[in-house]
Amino acid sequence: MSAAGSSVAGVTDPSPSTAAAPMPAKQRVVLWIAVLASFVAFLDGTVVNVALPAISDELGGGLTTQQWVVDAYLITLGALILVAGSVSDAYGRVLVMRIGLVGFGIASVAIAAAPTAEFLIVARAVQGAAGAFLVPSSLALITSTFRGAAQGRAIGIWTAGTTGAMIAGPLIGGLFVDLLSWRLVFLINVVPIAVTLWLLARAHLRDERRTDAAIDWLGAVLCTLGLGGIVFALIEQPRLGWGSPIIWGTFAGGSILFALFLLRQRTVTSPILPLELFRVRNFWTGNVATAFIYGALALNGLVVVVYLQQGAGLPATLAGLASLPVTLLLILLSTRVGALSGRWGPRLFMTLGPIVMGVGALLLLTVSTAFSYWWQVLPSMIVMGLGLALTVSPLTSTILGAIESERSGIASAVNNAVARVAGLIAVALLAVIVGGSLDLEGFHRAAIVTGVLMFAGGLVSLAGIRNPPKVDEPPPTT
Q1: Distance from C-alpha of 419 to C-alpha of 8, rounded to nearest angstrom
Q2: Which of 55, 153, 154, 334 could form a disulfide with 146 if both were Cys (CB 3.0 to 4.6 A apart)?
């Protein structure tokens, strides 16, 4: 879950009159399509961590395989989500959604049938590329179909659907791993994909295309290969060492390609990463905070669910449900926090929220060989959930509110990509962070790093975020 792409941050409470208004049949179909398409991507993001120990047990590779299963998806997702808007404009949202759904489905089947870890990792990269086009195109369908209060209601329903994936994913994934096979976890997507494609065929939606839309394919390739080279070096370095030409060569090559990507974004006519957005104080500060916070969340989410299975001996179902309090608190409190942030300003919440999450991460240091979920893990999950609820909505509204509304789409895509890439790097560094093995000592190391990253996110927000002037106050003159 990313800041701008959060399934909670965009919730708006419809008025009673709006909620009671009947929705035309065509709008209902469009809404179902948008919810199901996003549900697929969110569901996959929540089930994969639960299946990692079983995957590495069967296909081998240990921690390195687990890192690659996560990061192969995030590399293509993080790089291509930036270009998704341009592709949708050029070829049409409906066509792009169909391609994304079919690609995601084929990749899911390939993962389920993977004979080797290498085959599975490549299929995960394809799945990430397809997933990059699902969430943006689904939200674009909603914003182009609904207007005014109906749009707020539709986004609220979309939020409920995608949040349902966050809750159901770990439970379904854990049950499949424990009772059937980890391979079937990746086939869960096939049913909602088939239903969505059927609804798209029945809806007869008119696709709108912009003939003047420019797609920076070269930028997308440079970004993907650059991130891939850097991540390959970080993941494989503990095994091969920095003295290996493969490691320093791919790291140097990836760094050069990513630098060329950034240079191209300064000169290309239609950049996929408009660097001028980062001249806006709240936007760049919010994205730096996003990098710290969501890097920490990715690290914590992977470490907790894997250690609870491999270290504490919990079955996959219980390990998947361990972080459920975080999701429930996020759902229960985010709307209220969003309202308070609008009244008092986001700076306080963006400072306190990550610091509270940092405290929650450090509570995991109480985990010992005499393991107890209720006394050692649950308190951390509750504190983490409170901190996340304080953070997500103010962070999202601050970043999007810093940019003019007509560019909110690209602002959201950039923030989503920052969150994904931060998680990508954090997972790539996992072996270095835990000392090569996710035992109890490694688990404690990861908890400390998670806490430090969270504290850094809070301090960045404290130093950099500025509360916008209230509507009844004149803007500052300096």
Answers
A1: 15
A2: 154
